[in-house]
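discrete fold record:
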Amino acid sequence: MTSLDILFASVGLITAASAVLAVTTHQLVHAALWLVVTLGTLAGCYLVLGAELVALVQLLIYVGAVVVLVLFALMLTRAPMGRSPEHTSSGAQRIAAAVLGAGTTALLGSVLLPALGGELLTARVGDTKAIATQLFGSWVWPFELLSLLLLVALVAALAVSRMPATTEGEPVSLVPATSTEGESE
């Protein structure tokens, strides 16, 4: 066992532990922060495997954009910061989820481990320049449109969260009401 194997196993254990904590925590913001740790350590796994571009994309796209967008959405929608009794599940649901997760893990392990047959695989050197040329050549506009869509969604979430609460039957006004005090003089 090489030092890279030990490093990969330790980073993988941290990734798995933080993923379990992201799913089992009762606080929504803590779950999002544990998701940041999970995705960051997964990028560390990619680095150990020699896939620097995939690790960078993992950090930029998932940690830098998706999780930050989730945190903004939590803050803008005024989601409960502490424990919320309406978002907790019963003990039977937790046990069923644990059994289902363990069964899925066992199924994947029973299929993937024999498929490799215990032989060592060598890593092939990737051509990052070819990927970058294709990504920033033919695929740059879809990525830019997607970033514009995410920005519009963030601004719309901010606008919706700042709307005043209305009673039923009352029309919603997007223009804030102004006071007329002091204008009669």
